Amino acid sequence: MTRSAPEGGAVAHRPTSIDETIALLSAQDYVCGRPLGTVAFLALTLGKPLFLEGEAGVGKTEIAKALAAALGRRLIRLQCYEGLDAASAIYEWNFAAQMIAIRTAEAAGNADREMLRAELFSGDYLIRRPLLEAMEPHPEGPPVLLIDEVDRTDEPFEAFLLEALSDFQVTIPELGTIRAEEPPIVILTSNRTREVHDALKRRCLYHWVDFPSFDREMEILRARVPGITETLSAEVIAFVQSLRTEDLFKTPGVAESIDWARCLLALDTVALSPEVISDTLGAVLKYQDDIARIAGSEATRILNEARAKVGRAS
Ligand SMILES: Nc1ncnc2c1ncn2[C@@H]1O[C@H](COP(=O)(O)OP(=O)(O)OP(=O)(O)O)[C@@H](O)[C@H]1O
Ligand SMILES: [Mg+2]
Fold first, then answer.
1. SS3 label, residue 299
2. Is residue 313, in this structure, part of any structural domain at all?
3. What range(s) does the AAA+ ATPase domain occupy (predicted)?
4. 133 with 106, same domain?
5. Within this chain, do residues 48 and 81 fall inside the same structural domain, yes or no?
6. Same domain, yes or no, for 301 and 170?
7. Pocket of ligand 1 from Cβ distances under 6 Å
8. Which of 142, 174, 209 is the last residue of a domain?
9. What does the alpha-carbon distance between residue 214 and residue 312 come to, in Å, rounded to a whole number?
10. Could you tell me if residue 11 is inside a domain?
11. Which of 62, 147, 193 to probe ligand 1 with, by most ligand atoms within 8 A of CB?
12. 140 and 54 in one domain?
């Protein structure tokens, strides 16, 4: 069977090497170092879920999007939150539509209860939630299932996930068991607001996504903020990287570097200055206590430190 090539530079097959994995992600503007490229390649090759933990804004969610786009697969996202239960993750019956169908049947004098029952509990009245969607067949191949921020759920849901990820099947009493012919590509992320249970981690390949090095963050800005000069990029990154060593309530991630760079570009900024920094600090720091601590003389000190670093690097 031949498959037509998916759109947007995506490849239909799974990458056959670490380098190819990194190149595929890079074609989606996702900059990926060798350690992350290696686990991503292994997760795809062994069909194991990939568990990514790390600070906020370091590219955990984005890699799932980039992989789906690179492979031409659908991205199915299960956003976790406290109180998320199996019903909201797998399926629900559309009670409102079922009620309308019952009323309509009653009004029409259609009294065949068995037929009505069979119809009401058919696929037409099923609301598919992410886990069920991920297990159903997709013409372009198994989707990427992103189970995002799993640390926000509670332990019973984790136990349920463990089971779902072991057999990739779900049972709907009225319809039977649905089993994924080919398991989805699963990526779990966590911000480590609490430790996720060992049993769940054991099913996965684990990787801690760290803040990028100076050179890698430069590469990310090149990919994500077209039009920015190398000089301004270097200043922004050196400044943000210095900020990350400060004792802040919320350390800025890559997302903040990108946002800040875009703001500076929109303001036609050529180089950082204490004034520009104080005017735009809200793109990098999101807590008033952090802004109050850094604005003013601290910002000037960090800027000088950043300039010295850029000077040494160039
Ligand atoms: N390695 C990277 N290459 C390209 N862009 C990146 C990379 N890492 C982060 N980004 C950019 O940073 C933004 C934030 O990344 P993402 O949403 O994946 O962070 P996260 O780790 O999931 O954060 P959170 O824990 O807050 O959800 C993305 O939109 C993307 O533009
Ligand atoms: Mg995320």
1. helix
2. no
3. 46-224
4. no
5. yes
6. no
7. 29-32, 54, 56-62, 189, 191, 220, 223-224, 254-255, 258
8. 209
9. 12
10. no
11. 62
12. yes
Ligand 1, pocket-test mutation among 25, 52, 61, most atoms within 8 A of CB: 61
Give the type of residue at 192.
R
Same domain, yes or no, for 166 and 250? no
Residues 185 and 64 in one domain: yes
Supply the pTM of this predicted model: 0.90
DSSP, res 225: S
Ligand 2 centre distance from Cα of residue 54 (Å):
10
The terminus-to-terminus CA distance of the chain in angstroms comes to 53
pLDDT at position 164, please?
A: 85
CA 51 – ligand 1 centroid, Å: 15
Helix orientation angle between 297-313 and 230-243, rounded to the nearest 10 degrees: 120
Q: Are 149 and 197 members of one domain? A: yes
223 and 59 in contact (C-beta within 8 Å)?
Answer: no
Report how far apart, in Å, the C-alpha atoms of 188 and of each of 68, 135, 158, 281 are.
14, 16, 12, 32
**What is the span of the domain harbouring residue 156?**
18-85+129-209
Tokens of 208: 């801690």
With both helix axes pointing from N to C terminus, report the angle between 60-71 and 34-46 in degrees, rounded to the nearest 10: 60
Average pLDDT across each block of 10 residues of the chain; the chain has 314 residues. List them in order: 48 87 96 96 95 95 97 96 90 92 85 82 91 92 96 90 85 86 94 90 94 96 95 96 94 96 96 93 95 89 90 70
The angle at the Cα of 265, spanning 278 to 262, to the nearest 5 degrees, equals 80
Does 69 reside within a domain?
A: yes
Q: Both 246 and 288 in a single domain?
A: yes
Please report whether residue 314 resides in a domain: no
* Count of the separate structural domains present in the chain: 3
Number of residues that this document lists for the chain: 314
